[in-house]
Design a protein that fits this description.
15 strands; globular; binds pyridoxal-5'-phosphate
Length: 465
């Protein structure tokens, strides 16, 4: 007869002699009580943690096991997508969701999301219609373009453009100074390769002339791509062919010219605050680019989307490409973008769109808020200093721009900076600041005034734990 391993306590899990028993899933779940996670999720985490224990040389006491599992459950809860307070000063922070949406865009999304909508239904004719025709028309209007189309993001817009224009002639001409990487894992040469296009590098890193392009054009050239240096600047002995000059060459050679702007401000940002000029889609189209591509969630301040604007025949061809169907946006995105674009047309963008509004808050206002927070945290065991800072726009936008800002610098008396940062990060809502030169920084440029009280509460909680 087979001798089965001795069950231990309330458990049927076999264990080597001399080892403390691994508790059962049920025992752990009972001891956890309210776990703040749905039961199947909690069960999966408990199983995973118990399996990990099984691989360890010794099993800790039940209390320690429970602590570990609670901490794993908390980590899981923290990993859910949730609001955070952005204390980094980076207005378009890709890790923190880039552009916060306008109230109007959020209302439009929630109304459309709650029920049915005419996302692809023509209410005039009472039949199937195109997706978001008003959005496309309004985008074209703002970009001074014949037509516009919207896909998931600017990377998708580029893939679509490359697939469409390199079907027969596979070569794409790009300056060596524009073979850029944008954020994590997005490299122009990789996108090209993934799209089946063949990269033909032109010129050098710092100098690319019109003649370089002219020499490189061949019967195999399907497209000239100009890429905006959206997240870095080059200075010194630098020159590149202008859009206008390239457009003349492209027309002569009958090759489409596409300019990838990346950010693409829809208003002159330098008129809002003192930052360098960010090229607008209308400008590059006026200079002769056939198409331009840009993001919905960078300076534009809308939801994640990629916008393509320019010649109507090209936009039509892109929309007929089967890939377009795979890259199209969801109704909520279309709704939010449509509403965001209306703020531009109504002339209310600068105050309604958070990205633009945050840029314009004066340092005096930030300073007053910082001092109020300083006063409200006076009784705590830490020094709070109000200092001037430089914010970045971020997200691949206005790389040379420094926006004057105001920081709270926290110096705890009896807590390490690391521990403070951890406690603030684990608070609800989570606070994301920066550790820099021996203190913890919260840049108020990216903190909404409505969050000041939450910030104070989080700092208090960090010291009352
Ligand atoms: C940001 C950026 C992209 C990618 O845009 P996503 O909307 O993030 O896909 C492409 N090109 C340039 C120049 C950019 O700055």
């Amino acid at each position: 007869m087979n001798r089965r391993p001795q069950a231990n306590g309330d458990d049927a899990i076999p264990m080597p002699r001399g080892r403390r028993a691994i508790p059962s899933v049920e025992k752990v779940l009972q001891a956890l009580g309210e776990m703040g996670a749905a039961r199947p999720v909690a069960v999966a985490i408990v199983r995973r943690e118990l399996a990990a224990l099984r691989r360890e040389p010794s099993v800790p006491e039940f209390g320690t096991v429970l602590l570990r599992i609670r901490s794993a459950l908390n980590d899981q809860t923290l990993a859910r997508i949730q609001p955070v307070i952005n204390g980094t000063g980076i207005i378009l922070h890709t890790n923190l969701g880039r552009a916060p949406l306008s109230d109007k865009a959020i209302e439009a999304m929630s109304e459309a999301g709650r029920g049915y909508s005419n996302v692809e239904f023509d209410l005039v004719k009472g039949e199937r219609g195109s997706r978001a025709p008003v959005l496309e028309q309004n985008l074209a209007l703002l970009c001074e373009a014949e037509a516009a189309a919207v896909v998931n993001n600017c990377a998708a817009a580029l893939v679509l453009v490359l697939r469409q224009f390199t079907r027969e002639k596979r070569q794409v001409l790009i300056s060596r100074g524009e073979l850029v990487q944008i954020g994590g894992g997005f490299r122009i040469p990789d996108i090209l390769e993934a799209s089946g296009a063949e990269l033909r590098e032109v010129g050098t890193t710092n100098q690319t002339s019109l003649e370089d392009y002219a020499r490189a054009i061949s019967p195999q050239t399907g497209l000239i791509l100009k890429v905006h240096r959206s997240n870095f600047t080059m200075s010194g002995f630098v020159s590149s062919a202008s859009t206008a000059a390239l457009a003349a060459l492209a027309r002569e050679e009958n090759v489409p010219l596409v300019e990838d702007l990346g950010s693409g401000a829809l208003i002159a940002t330098e008129q809002l605050i003192s930052v360098p000029h960010e090229p607008t889609p209308a400008e590059v189209l006026r200079q002769g680019a056939d198409l331009t591509t840009f993001s919905g969630d960078k300076l534009l301040g809308g939801p994640q989307a990629g916008i393509i604007a320019g010649r109507a025949d090209y936009i039509g061809a892109l929309k007929r490409n089967p890939i377009f169907r795979a890259l199209r946006c969801d109704k909520l995105i279309l709704c939010a973008l449509e509403t965001t674009i209306e703020s531009y047309l109504n002339g209310t963008a600068a105050r309604e769109i958070p990205t633009l509004a945050l840029l314009q808050v004066s340092c005096d206002t930030l300073c007053e808020r910082a001092e109020a927070i300083q006063a409200m945290t006076r009784e705590l065991p830490l020094d709070v200093r109000v200092t001037s800072a430089q914010s970045q726009v971020g997200g691949g936008t206005l790389p040379g721009a420094q926006v004057e800002s105001v920081c709270l610098e926290l110096l705890p008396h009896a807590l390490t900076l690391h521990e403070l940062s951890l406690r603030l990060r684990r608070h609800k809502p989570s606070i994301i600041g920066c550790l820099s030169s021996g203190s913890y920084h919260i840049d108020l440029r990216t903190v909404f005034p409505r969050q000041d009280e939450q910030l104070v509460a989080a700092i208090r909680a960090a010291f009352n734990d």
